[in-house]
Amino acid sequence: MYQTDPPRSPKDVLPTMYDLPSEDPEEPGLPDQFHLLQPRLLDETFRPPNYPSDEIFVASDLNLYYDPRYPLWYKRPDWFAVLGVSRLYEQRDLRLSYVIWQEGVHPFIVVELLSPGTEKEDLGQTLRDIKQPPGKWEVYEQILRIPYYVVFDRYKYELRVFKLDGGRYAEIALSESRFWIPELELGLGVWRGRYQDVEQPWLRWYDWTGCWILTSTEQESQRAEQERQRAEQERQRAKRLIAQLRSLGVEPDID
Are 205 and 45 in contact (CB under 8 A)? Predict the structure, then answer.
């Protein structure tokens, strides 16, 4: 690739999001149901209070192009979040991919869902062939320097959190399956409950009080229950009033 003098910005000369989509017809298969549902729950409950909703971008199974020297190299995190960027590409389009040299902002946190076929690469336990692109661990730690890297074992339901410390990921010792992230004013933990009619442990976000952040469906159910309780309280209050009036010899007009 030829460069000009003076050099132009990679944003101007390298491929854009429209040139680097996520779709790859040569990649076999699609994610299984867990890899579809778990990121959706993370999406629904990721609401950091210190960031406006239009300055948060979250994605799952989306190509992340990370190195302008090798513009076709990418990783595809199971879930990641970027803070301080528009939810839409250049505030107008849904993204086809996330291209670092176009966006200018790196992800703040990445979540990988472990499975037997990906576990060693996800945990940085594979040796790199110098002729091949670097593995996920190296990309997240050394190239993108993502502050938090989370792995969740879908079979053991085990949560592991790594934080960038001195240029290397250091694992955080968890006393329970929860971890508070002060920069987000949110915590991430393992919750056992029913999501999309499936009862099992799930990874989801919680607030500063320790309460799990509700999905929109859960919020609607909560509002409906609160309304039912208010109606029942009104019914009981009216029943008591009628009884008091009758005790005074007054027959209330309840038509």
Answer: yes
Query: CA-CA distance, 15 to 203, in Å (whole number)?
Result: 35
| 159 within 8 A of 113, measured Cβ to Cβ | no
Least confident of 3-7, 12-16, 209-213, 250-254: 3-7
Question: pTM for this one?
Answer: 0.81
Judge contact between 38 and 129, C-beta under 8 A: no
Sign of CA dihedral 104, 80, 166, 135: negative
Q: Does residue 104 register a pLDDT over 90?
A: yes
Q: What DSSP line would sit under the chain, residue for residue?
A: ----SSPPPHHHHS--TTTS-S--TTS-----HHHHHHHHHHHHH---TTS-GGGEEEESS--EE--TTSTT-EE--SEEEEESS-SSBTTTB--SSEEHHHH----SEEEEEE-TTTHHHHTT-SPPPTTS---HHHIIIIIS--SEEEEEETTTTEEEEEEEETTEEEEPPPSSSEEEETTTTEEEEEEEEEETTEEEEEEEEE-TTSPBPPPHHHHHHHHHHHHHHHHHHHHHHHHHHHHHHHHTT------
